[in-house]
Amino acid sequence: MEPDQTAQADHLTILMMVAHPDDIDFGNGGSVATWTGAGHRVVYCLITDGDAGGFDEEVSRTDMATIRRDEQRAAGAILGVDEFHFLGWPDGRLYVTHELRRDLARVIRQVRPDRVVTQSPTRNLRSMYGSHPDHTAAGEAVMCAVYPDARNPFAHPELLDEEGLAAHTVSEVWISHMGEGADHYVDTTDAFERKVDALRAHKSQTAHMEDLSGRMWAWGRSQAKAAEFGKDRLAEGYLVLDTR
Fold it and tell me: What EC number(s) does the entry state (predicted)?
């Protein structure tokens, strides 16, 4: 399998576009820490605030949204990220709509990334947790925003006519959580502790988890085995798409 060459590339702008706060940290935290450590600009776009998450029934959904934004900012800081776009779409009710595609295309035109990283638009029948409907909807909507919306000056004309956001073509999209479908891997061994620290910053979601570090190590190790990285290495896998 192909290892990641991002660390040797010229400085890139990498836009992470996912459904919920903590999605990036679970699936891509080691990659993000590796990329920012190499000097790349990483920007987060969170489609929902994760207001349907958490376990404390005494916390209002409005308060939960605020808590989760704050947790995501804290987690991002641990990984070297300080640019965030919070779109505020409703958690648990995410669908691929024209309006969602417009909002995602807006962020792409604002950030003008070289690479977009998002979730799989395809349900994984072997993974219930890996196929959250918000995740698959996010992946599909992001792919629609990458092509054709963000690059077509005549799509969502208000973005250009009213907001002055020129069309932008994303060179590549990385789909995360691909399991056996991955064709590209990031060695995250040296970033593992920062990934776990970022996950712990999401206290409303992870404080109850026993052996969080062990669970993340086991997942990273399984990815590294698939990548044939060798003993005691950790990895995060992707399907890389040329979208030029």
Answer: 3.5.1.-
How many whole angstroms separate alpha carbon 150 and alpha carbon 163? 14
CA–CA dist 78, 81 (Å, integer): 8
Backbone φ, ψ for residue 45 (5° rounding): -125, 115
Alpha carbon distance 16, 22 (integer Å): 12
Per the structure, the complete domain to which residue 134 belongs is given by: 2-242
- Look at residues 184, 192, 202 and name the one whose alpha carbon lies nearest to residue 55: 202
The continuous run of DSSP H or E covering 231 comes out as none
Mean pLDDT calculated for residue range 129-155: 95
Q: What is the pLDDT of residues 178-196, one digit of tens each?
A: 767 899 999 999 999 999 9
Amino acid at 63: D
Closest CA to 71 of 26, 137, 115, 122: 26
Number of domains in the chain: 1
CATH number at residue 133: 3.40.50.10320
